[in-house]
Amino acid sequence: MQTRLQAVSGPALKSAIEQRNGSALASFYAPDAILRIMDRNNPPSRPREIHGRAAIAAFWDDICSRAMTHAVDTTLADDGRMAFTQACSYPDGTRVFCISVMETREGQISQQTIVQTWDE
Question: What CATH number does the domain containing 80 carry?
């Protein structure tokens, strides 16, 4: 199934994340986008890198399939850049906090870096 591309915006991003809509999230990425994730298992010297819309779509499909809630707290946008914070919780009470910074090109995310921390 082909993803229908959409221009990314703060409200659209918030809606897709909070509704756990992986296909809507994938639609915001450029075909050659890069997603970097830094956390305890993926430190800054070796971040996890996901290349291309198809691989990023698979990542979001996995995240959105998990039994958890997502709340986007803050979104900021400037010419060619966006950022947001996100608080998540699993049914067992485990919490995750993320901050994400993105570069956009022609309304699509071209690069994104996510830094996340988990309850241990």
Answer: 3.10.450.50
Q: pTM score > 0.85 for this model?
A: yes
Q: What is the pLDDT of residues 48-88, one digit of tens each?
A: 999 999 999 999 999 999 999 999 988 898 889 999 999 99
Residue 61 lies in a domain: yes
Statement: residue 114 has pLDDT above 70: yes
Report if residue 4 sits inside a domain.
no
- Write a three-state SS string for the chain: CCCCCCCCCHHHHHHHHHCCCHHHHHCCEEEEEEEEEEECCECCCCCEEEECHHHHHHHHHHHHHCCCEEEEEEEEEECCEEEEEEEEECCCCCEEEEEEEEEEECCEEEEEEEEEEECC
